[in-house]
Amino acid sequence: MRIAIASGALLGAAVLAGLVAGATPARSATGESSDAQVVRVVARRFSYTPNRITLKKGRPAVLEFTSIDFVHGFNVPDLHLRADLPPGQVTRVPIMPLRAGVYDMLCDNFCGAKHEEMNGQIVVD
Ligand SMILES: [Cu+2]
Questions:
Q1: Cα 64 to ligand 1 centre (Å)
Q2: CA–CA gap between residue 105 and residue 113 (Å, rounded)
Q3: Ligand 1 geometric centre to CA of 15 (Å)
Q4: CATH number of the domain to which 88 belongs
Q5: Could you tell me which residues come within 8 angstroms of residue 59 by beta carbon, excluding any fewer than 6 positions away?
Q6: Ligand 1: distance of its center to the CA of 116 in Å?
Q7: How far, in Å, from the CA of 107 to the mean position of ligand 1?
Q8: Å from CA of 94 to ligand 1 middle
């Protein structure tokens, strides 16, 4: 009988712990906040879609890239962001936009004739 009571108390504690854990903002192993703005971006010769990404200043964000055809090179020089984008997988790029502004993004892996046209902007406001 004592065992039954003890296990009941343990179960109650476990449920309570679960509720408390559920009430606190979750963080992934990489430290990304669960309230991050997630923006999916498709990369292909010779464009990013969307090619204008708007983020809220002070709110963490994650850019999720899928490349269709090539290892494009996502680069935002003024934000010191860079990632190779291998096709066939999602490449996540965390970003904490702290300063309002318009930042040019480009592809820095030569991907063909119109490579120079593969660009866009990140707008933080
Ligand atoms: Cu490219």
A1: 16
A2: 18
A3: 50
A4: 2.60.40.420
A5: 35, 36, 37, 97
A6: 8
A7: 5
A8: 20
What whole-number percentage of the chain has pLDDT above 90?
72
- pLDDT at residue 30 in the model: 55
- Ligand 1 centroid to residue 118 C-alpha, Å: 6
Please indicate, yes or no, if residue 13 is contained in any of the structural domains. no
Averaged pLDDT, 4-23: 40
CB 45 within 8 A of CB 21: no
Report in angstroms the alpha-carbon separations of 74 from 3, 82, 84, 107. Answer: 59, 5, 6, 5
Q: Which domain holds residue 50?
A: 36-124
Lowest mean pLDDT among 6-20, 45-59, 78-92: 6-20
User: Is residue 103 domain-resident?
Assistant: yes
pLDDT digits (tens, 9 = 90+) for 14-50: 433 333 333 334 455 555 567 899 999 999 999 999 9
Residue 44 Cα to ligand 1 middle (Å): 7
